[in-house]
């Protein structure tokens, strides 16, 4: 069976989620860069793989996919190795809930506003807009509080074992914790801080570290 192919840049959090999923199995794969910040996402070649111009896109054994949720679940179902989706229905529901919070509220506020203004905008030579960051903070705080509550006393976000929920949130945290706002916003979330301390040192996180600049 051929190795899966991921299309997207290593700096994308969603691309990193799929890489983490494959690394955790573990399974061989190939990463084909698509520089979305440089406009490659809207070129004809990529639009054939992902008609909305986003990343990642994915190919495996004749199957083409896009949308990170679908790709990650497919990888876990099809490839041998560690199971990253709980068999217990309640734990699986918690995993699904965390991923949905990330996609609907966490990514847009944490990555799309705080990280974008604090890290990405200055890299492009523009002035960060602190107003956008301040307006995003209530939503970021709510997301963090919910991750903390759902995790509870568990080691990982959906229970005692690592799941796709952890692999969706960790790449976002890798950027978020680089911002000057993270310490303040994470202060009430000791469980989430402990989770990140462990996740950030995980071998798969080290292997998928993006090379920035």
Topology:
Layout: E1 5-7, H1 13-24, E2 30-32, H2 44-49, E3 57-60, E4 63-66, H3 68-78, H4 89-123, H5 130-151, H6 164-176, H7 182-186, H8 190-199, H9 203-207
Parallel strand pairs: 1-2
Antiparallel strand pairs: 1-3, 3-4
- Weakly predicted, low-confidence segments: none
Order of helices and strands: EHEHEEHHHHHHH
Strand order of the largest sheet: 2-1-3-4
Categorize the overall geometry. Answer: globular
On the 0 to 100 scale, the average pLDDT is: 96
The largest pleated sheet is described as:
4 strands, mixed
Terminal Cα separation, in Å?
35 Å
Count of extended strands? 4
Based on CA atoms alone, the radius of gyration comes out at 17 Å
CATH-derived topology of the largest domain: Glutathione S-transferase Yfyf (Class Pi), Chain A, domain 2
CATH architecture of the largest domain: Up-down Bundle
Strand content: 5-15%
Q: Total domains, how many?
A: 2
Instruction: Give the CATH level 1 class of the largest domain.
Output: Mainly Alpha
Please give the count of helices. Answer: 9
What structural class results from the helix and strand content?
alpha+beta
Amount of helix: 55-70%
Description:
- There is one protein chain.
- Helices cover 56% and strands 7% of the residues.
- The protein is of the alpha+beta class and 213 residues long.
- The protein has two domains: 5-78, Glutaredoxin; 89-206, Up-down Bundle (Glutathione S-transferase Yfyf (Class Pi), Chain A, domain 2), CATH 1.20.1050.10.
- The chain has a four-stranded mixed beta sheet with strand order 2-1-3-4, with helices on one face.
- β1 (5-7), α1 (13-24) and β2 (30-32) form a beta-alpha-beta unit.
- The model has no long low-confidence stretch (mean pLDDT 96).
